[in-house]
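Let us work through a complete example step by step.
Step 1: write down the sequence.
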Amino acid sequence: MLQKFRHHNYTEFVFGKGAEDSVGEDIRRLGGQRVLIVYGQGGHIRKSGLLDKIRMSLRDQGLEVFELCGIQTNPRLSVVKRGIALCREEQIDFLLAIGGGSVIDTCKAIGVGFYYNGDVWDLVKMPEEIEKMLPIAVVLTYPAAGSESSTGAVITNDEIEPMVKASIGAPVTRPVIAFENPELTYSLPPYLTACGVADMYVHILERYFSPVEIGCMDYIAEGMLRAVIAFGRKVVEDPLNYDDRAEIMWLGTIAHNNTVGLGRPQDWATHSLGHEISALYDTAHGATLTIVGPGWMKYVHTSCIYRFARYAREVFGIDEADDGKAALKGIEATKEFYHDLGLPVSFEEAGIAADQIDYMAQHAVILGGGSIGRFMQLNGEDAKKIYELCLS
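Step 2: predict the structure and record it as tokens.
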């Protein structure tokens, strides 16, 4: 049965061709006057004319426009702090992210840091201090992280050595509006498209592999997993198909806005293990999940064989009466799906030396107070064994 929960998802969505046309009008309607546009290196959005289009849309509505560019994959704390300082100096009252999870997460960290008097990194361990955030609008160009309507932001602290990657988030950190035009994703490189598909797939898995059996949430999650597999393969094969891009774009959003996570304990061990790889080797987030995910599955599946057998049967259609055999076949099918996307399922395939497993294992559990995971609680030694299962 569903456990007790409270849920409020206030993100407004503008979806479809030309969704970004009303950016200026909508931000003005929502109270914005001095807008900071935040984006990555800017090459493509400049060349495609998207950046100029957004600037013009804002200025046509009489809004003042400022910019912060250069956001990179695994976004850095140092840039967040630069953004906070800029917002205070220029009295920014609205943030506009153009991009994907890295840009949106940077905006979220800037938005909460704007109202916090101390070091914004403090909020990793003190989310209860997050009570307010500068409003954020998103023009989504990379469906993956689902940050356009989720409560979390993942930031890499580049002010310490080795770097550390951790989450900042609270109920107030959802963007207020997201503009989603599937056409803006056509030019994504195949590898980034694949990483995005993997990210949304694992976002669902982190909620699906719960120690609580829940009827409606399981059926919804299984349907979404099948959809990500079907449309994920299609967008990798044919990146210019609008219908398939639209399906994947919306799947990425609902995979991480907690639609399938309500009323149940959630796991998140795979993400914790993957973050350590990103922090040390600057690996794309989606690829870290495909590297450690199958190893996590193999390590924990015996704690609830039936759950993994159900996953194999309902998601991959595996016809196997024996639960143990079905569970293992489901894990193999997951690896095959990741391979179909062109993503690695081991450190060796990713070309990562994995020479710091002991450090990663111990550090992965620190923020969890010595353990991670809810499906099966894992300590540092468990984390080490999982990493070892992922070597080759």
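Step 3: interpret the result. The first helix runs from residue 23 to 29.
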